[in-house]
């Protein structure tokens, strides 16, 4: 009796159990893409600031709106998370941290990015 069922030629996502390191790797890529959009917004803000008060006012109004602040909060988190993920990958590139501690590094990347983001925003509102 022959098996007519076709099987994948290589392992597929459907057989892998998602881990924190897999998830953080995907989030690292997503934050990298999000940084492109945030950097464009930053460039628009800087160009408007250099262009004069009349051009700067609508851009600043958008940035200061609740939606603009949410975008800035996401951009802040993305840049911090991406930087911490880059440090984690740099450590791995040295050959260190590839054992069971890799799960700790992944969790620290997530927790650290959230804590630093909240801390920066709290500091920003405190000095404001």
Number-wise, the strands total 0
- Arithmetic mean pLDDT: 90
Q: Write out the CATH superfamily name.
A: Fumarate reductase/succinate dehydrogenase, transmembrane subunit
Number of DSSP helices? 4
Secondary-structure-based class equals mainly alpha
Q: Which residue ranges are poorly predicted, with pLDDT under 50 across at least 5 consecutive positions?
A: none
The CATH architecture can be named as Up-down Bundle
Distance between the termini: 76 Å
How would you sum up the global shape? elongated
**Proportion of helical residues:** over 70%
SSE series: HHHH
The major β-sheet equals: none
Determine Rg (CA atoms, Å).
21 Å
CATH structural class? Mainly Alpha
Count of domains: 1
How would you describe this protein?
The relative contact order is 0.11. Helix 1 runs antiparallel to helix 2. By secondary structure, the chain is an all-alpha fold.
Provide the descriptors you would attach to this structure in a database record.
128 residues, mainly alpha, 3 helical TM bundles of succinate and fumarate reductases
Topology:
Blueprint: H1 20-51, H2 53-64, H3 66-93, H4 101-127
Helix pairs in contact: 1-2, 1-3, 3-4
Write a short abstract of this structure.
With 128 residues, this protein is mainly α. It is 77% helix and 0% strand. The longest helix has 32 residues, at 20-51.
């Amino acid at each position: 009796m022959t098996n007519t069922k076709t099987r994948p030629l290589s392992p597929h996502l459907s057989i892998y159990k998602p881990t924190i390191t897999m998830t953080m790797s995907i989030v690292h890529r997503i934050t990298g893409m999000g940084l492109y959009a945030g950097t464009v917004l930053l460039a628009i803000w800087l160009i408007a600031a250099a262009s004069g008060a009349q051009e700067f006012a609508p851009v600043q109004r958008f940035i200061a709106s609740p939606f603009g602040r949410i975008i800035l909060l996401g951009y802040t988190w993305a840049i911090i998370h991406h930087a911490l993920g880059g440090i984690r990958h740099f450590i791995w590139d040295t050959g260190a941290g590839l054992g069971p501690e890799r799960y700790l590094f992944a969790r620290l990347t997530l927790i650290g990015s959230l804590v630093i983001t909240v801390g920066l925003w709290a500091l920003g509102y405190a000095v404001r």
